[in-house]
Design a protein that fits this description.
The chain is mainly α. Helices cover about 55% and strands about 5% of the residues. The protein has 22 helices and seven strands. The chain has a five-stranded parallel sheet, sandwiched between helices. Helix 8 packs antiparallel against helix 9 and helix 19 packs across helix 21. The radius of gyration is 27 Å and the shape is globular. The two termini are about 55 Å apart.
Length: about 475
Amino acid sequence: MNVYGERPDLVFLGPSLSHDEARRIAPDAVLLPPAGMGDVLTALERFRPHAIALIDGNFLHTMAVFHKEIVDALARGVWVIGASSMGALRAAECAPYGMIPVGEIAAAYLSGELEGDDEVALVHADADDGYRPLSDAMVEIRATVRAATTAGLLTAEEADRLIAGQKRRWFPERTLAATVDDVRDHLGWPAEQVAAYRAFVRANRVDLKSRDARAALQALVELPAGPVPEAERPLLESSGVYQLMAARDRFVGDGPPGVRLEDIRTHAALTDRGYLTDWRRAAQRAALLNLSQYLDLEPPPEATVAARRRVAHAFGVAPDELDGEAAALDLSPNGLEVLLGEEARLEQLERWVFELGRGHSVDVAYHNLMRLQGRYRKLRADAEAIEKLAAASEERDIEPPFLVALSQHMVLSGFTLPVSLDEFVADSGFGTRTKLYDRLMTHLVAERALLGIPVGMGFEFVDDDTPDIDHGAGEMNARGAR
């Protein structure tokens, strides 16, 4: 049981409806920010919910919610409702798998009356400002202009021109207020007619998204108490892309949002002297586990019982305390069973060596290895602290040359390159220098903020055009910040 109660109802909600109003309709639901990629999967592991109402989502600064996250929830017996915004889009697309469309917008997408994702897109303020909309959704502009036509303020032709004009604009620039300017500037209306239209728009805005959000919340509280019946659940077909997302993009920690699993690992890559050894061990572990799946090996029951004892010992708890300790290490009941199964299979395969070919397996294996070694909790806390410091720093948008950033990180953190730069990029799991630079800057900005180094100081001492980029460990270690 988690702090929110057994099997809570979750609502991903932002600009479509205020959280205060949502609480009046669904007082027992857990309200979460608009969902992006990985957030539904994170919620499944963190809350083990009874139901999810997906209303609002993110798509600009992160990828949108994966369809497979929703199918995963349905496959686990979790009810999923979609309405209003991103929820309406996903509900129309995932209705064949059991997602429940609610409201006029979802119905329009389901019927094909609406097609473009941009119909529900808008920009909004952050959580501190209540996700206040900063533009208007095309679907609501369209409905309000049609209402003005019905009221006799516009002809059908004029309404079409106003709607087409808004549709041509980039979605952050679409507003009902802009249609008032359009009737004056493009339709050539006199001032008194413009004033009448302005008054109508202010008094008669068609709030489709809010209306649909309320309907979704009402549907949420009226759902059956139990899970989705077994016979109605879809089959979740596994894929490498989804497994990779689950291995790297799930958030853990004291969130929301917490810290991503991949951020914990990359934090270790930049700060932990034993990281490469651990990464290679994780790769070997994953290779053996993949081999056991290829051979279709099923350990006997006694092997799983023995694995539970070994894992409990590694966690420093009694076997009957293992479930609680696993939860503290971000392992769901299913994740713990996966770990126990791994240990049982590795008991049979521990002397085998195989070359790794599936990157996502290494991420999973690495985090499990850190849990077993008792180092995961500190890595998670440190990585999360780095993210918070970097996000609050005035230097978060500064982009010094790669070698300057790397040199300063090495001086400030004590980190040294154990191999050449290219080997480190290839062997540590970063994959590219671009990704290494991105994570390196997060660490460097946080380290400078922690030490109180003035903004920009020390970023100018290495030439941007440094020709020798393939520095070995010794050469790089000799170059410090001044």
